[in-house]
Amino acid sequence: MYYQLLSIFLNALSVLLAKVSFSRVSENAFLIIYSLTFITLALMHARLSEMVRYLCSRNGMASVIFNTLGTWCFYKGLEQLTPGTHSFIARSYIIFGTLISVLWFHEKLTMTRFFVLLACISGVVLSSLPDATGNVAFKSVMFTLFSSLFFALNYAVLKKKTADVHPCAPLGINGFFLLILASCFAGHQGEWVFSETAAQGVVYSVLSAAFIFYSMFAYIKSAGSIDFHVATVLRALSPVVVTLISLPFFGYAGGQLQIAGEMLVIISIIAMGMTQTMNRRVS
Q: Where does the EamA domain start and stop, copy by copy (predicted)?
């Protein structure tokens, strides 16, 4: 539980720094810096041989692919959305996570969980509507939804068990694959222009990558010891933290429908957590 909560807080700080860096460096430049930071930090904690063993292990390649695609889509969505709006839309993770828990892990879909799931879906849809400034782009929303799907699949693969290696080993491999993906989409001109603003962007990018690295480290470390559904609910609390931290920097421009959607997401999260707690007491 402690590692999951630490992961949520570090993730919120990382999202805020990433959004700030986008105003100073391009998205692809950010991803390249992000990837290099991941690889460096992973090599400080884990051996290269462990990374290779993880990649070649059962479910290892699937985990790397899902996490790499999820990360790329996540930041593609963040580029044109405020951190708060992006985080609430990203809570579609709990929808995909619940569906996976039923279809893959054969958990029971009770009537209560079904209605809570519908509430969460409604909340995500309302959160995706344009805010008071008309700032929600359909493409960014779709990228964010796909990132949630890929991350939910990645966590499911981790629950299915991969190689028993240091938690930083998969992060290093993810950084390597993301570096390749980001390099393929990087432009030949304008990606790297030295200036004081760009230098600040590099610093923010490195810090953002470091925070999310240790957020994912904590996330992976607890993956095998916490119930899949409980982990999904805990991770869904992060939009509240992101919104609160980003308010002084980006404000809040949500309309009534968006606020209603965000409240639905929060209520559905709480309801799912209560449902899980009652089920544990009964069993």
A: 5-128, 140-272
CA-based end-to-end distance of the chain: 20
Which tens digits make up the pLDDT trace of 156-211? 887 766 557 777 888 889 999 999 998 887 765 455 555 667 888 899 999 999 99
Is residue 69 a contact partner of residue 150, using CB atoms and an 8 Å limit?
A: yes
* Single-letter residue type at 255: G
Phi-psi category of 42—alpha, beta or left, where left has phi over 0 and alpha has psi -120 to 50?
Answer: alpha
Confirm if 179 and 32 have CB atoms less than 8 A apart. yes
> Exposed (0-12), middle (13-18) or buried (19+): which is 196, by Cβ within 10 Å?
exposed
Kindly report the pTM of this predicted structure: 0.81
Q: Where are the alpha helices (DSSP H) in 110-255?
A: 111-127, 138-160, 168-185, 196-221, 228-235, 238-250
User: In this structure, are residues 34 and 205 in contact, taking their beta carbons and an 8 Å threshold?
Assistant: yes
Please give the Cα distance from 74 to 78 (Å, whole number): 6
Contact of 3 with 217, CB cutoff 8 Å = no
